[in-house]
Design goal:
It is a single chain. It is built from five helices and four strands, in the order ββαβαβααα. It is of the alpha+beta class. It has one domain: 2-Layer Sandwich (Nucleotidyltransferase, domain 5), CATH 3.30.420. The protein has a two-stranded antiparallel sheet with strand order 1-2. Strands 3-4 form a two-stranded parallel ribbon. Strand 3, helix 2 and strand 4 form a beta-alpha-beta unit. The protein is globular, with a radius of gyration of 15 Å. The termini are far apart. This is DDE endonuclease. Keywords: Endonuclease, Hydrolase, Nuclease. GO terms for molecular function: endonuclease activity; nucleic acid binding. InterPro entries: RNaseH_sf, Tc1-like_DDE_dom, Transpos_IS630-like.
Length: 135
């Protein structure tokens, strides 16, 4: 079994929405979009930056009205700001660990995500890095 963290952050507000799931496919992405949609403030609209993974670009996805998907060019993960979030989670809470079993992996993934979401200043710092906004 696998454990995937599906996560999205809003660096302006320091908010995040995420799920830890045992699969990475269209159904999981649909659940993730629903989670993000619920987290978007009333009357607001989210732009979700994505790579072109098959489960991101499939026409089977039903994108909520309060979300717009913006796709990056192929093979360019360095352009996606959320990659900094994954690196932060690995560096601080997920790497160099020995997990007892699958449930322990899921528990650590959930704990890492929740620690991040509980620190909005971290989300703002990671997502609003000065270098990421240079022209």
């Amino acid at each position: 079994m696998w454990a995937y963290i599906f996560g999205a952050v809003c660096p302006r507000k320091g908010k995040g929405a995420g799920l830890v799931l045992p699969y990475c496919d269209t159904e999981a992405m649909q659940q993730h979009l629903a989670e993000i949609s619920q987290a978007v403030d009333e009357g607001a609209h989210a732009v979700l930056i994505l790579d072109q993974a098959g489960w991101h670009v499939t026409p089977k996805l039903k994108v909520p009205d309060n979300i717009t998907l913006m796709f990056l060019p192929p093979r360019s993960p360095e352009l996606n700001p959320v990659e900094n979030v994954w690196q932060f989670l690995r560096d601080n809470w997920l790497s160099n660990r020995i997990f007892k079993d699958y449930d322990d992996i899921v528990a650590h993934c959930c704990a890492a995500w929740n620690k991040l979401v509980d620190q909005p200043w971290k989300i703002m710092s990671i997502g609003l890095r000065e270098w990421a906004h240079r022209s």
